[in-house]
Amino acid sequence: MSTPVLSLRGLRAGYGRRQILRDVTLDVHAGQIVALLGRNGAGKSTTLLAVAGFLPQVEGEILLDGQPLAGAPHTRARRGTGLVIKGRSLFASLTVAENMRLADLAPDALLDIFPELEARLHVRAGQLSGGEQQMVAVARALLRRPRVVLLDELTFGLSPAMARRLVDAVVERARQDGTAVLAVEQHIHIAERMATHAAIVAEGVVKLHLRRDELLARAEEIEGIYLGHAVDV
Ligand SMILES: Nc1ncnc2c1ncn2[C@@H]1O[C@H](COP(=O)(O)OP(=O)(O)O)[C@@H](O)[C@H]1O
Ligand SMILES: [Mg+2]
């Protein structure tokens, strides 16, 4: 098979002396959408932060197109990582159009993905609904044509209709551009809607790698063992 766009090998990382990731190993190939599933506190967001360069001490390997990915977050973003974290992506006091321009993007490009935002282009980002903000954040990341887009709970807190709209738009655009996607999810039904593959993480270790057909066949079992009740620790 071809070289993965993103390859994590035995990733270990934490906060200070507290180790969180113990063995995160997974690949994301071009055109794949890999759902990183696990319960609250499993280490999903920490994995994305490690890849994007926000954790000072990471052991193991992070490869982008087969080459080590290192350095500050902006260096990694230039290499082709696009991170979408809820609540941190947009400048609330700037308009949607200004937020697009800050990312070196033409405001209208947003409408290729989300035409329903046309009337919102000159509204401050802080005035948008949570779903609309997430649309702008994810479109901005995708339109910069990253090699891999890292999504942290894309649909958290959104209505089911808004969640479906976002997920379907991301799937379509990623497929069209061949963008690799690593999508952190706590809800298996979102993973079922979007993922080509899944990696199941528990206590900082990727325990299972599944193809889409395996995820669908084992969804109930996986939910019971690895997702179940969210325990925040
Ligand atoms: N900034 C931080 N400092 C210390 N511990 C943290 C920090 N962020 C997360 N943690 C801890 O790391 C563990 C994994 O967190 P996280 O990766 O956010 O889990 P998930 O995204 O899977 O819910 C949790 O126990 C959490 O409390
Ligand atoms: Mg998280």
From TrEMBL:
Please, which domain of life does this record's source organism belong to? Bacteria
From its record, what is one biological process in GO terms? L-amino acid transport
A GO molecular function annotation here is:
branched-chain amino acid transmembrane transporter activity
**InterPro entries (alphabetical):** AAA+_ATPase, ABC_transporter-like_ATP-bd, ABC_transporter-like_CS, BCAA_Transport_ATP-bd_LivF, P-loop_NTPase
Q: Mention any Pfam family matching this sequence.
A: ABC_tran
Q: Where is the ABC transporter domain?
A: 6-228
This one is known as Amino acid/amide ABC transporter ATP-binding protein 2, HAAT family
| Source organism of this protein record | Paraburkholderia tropica
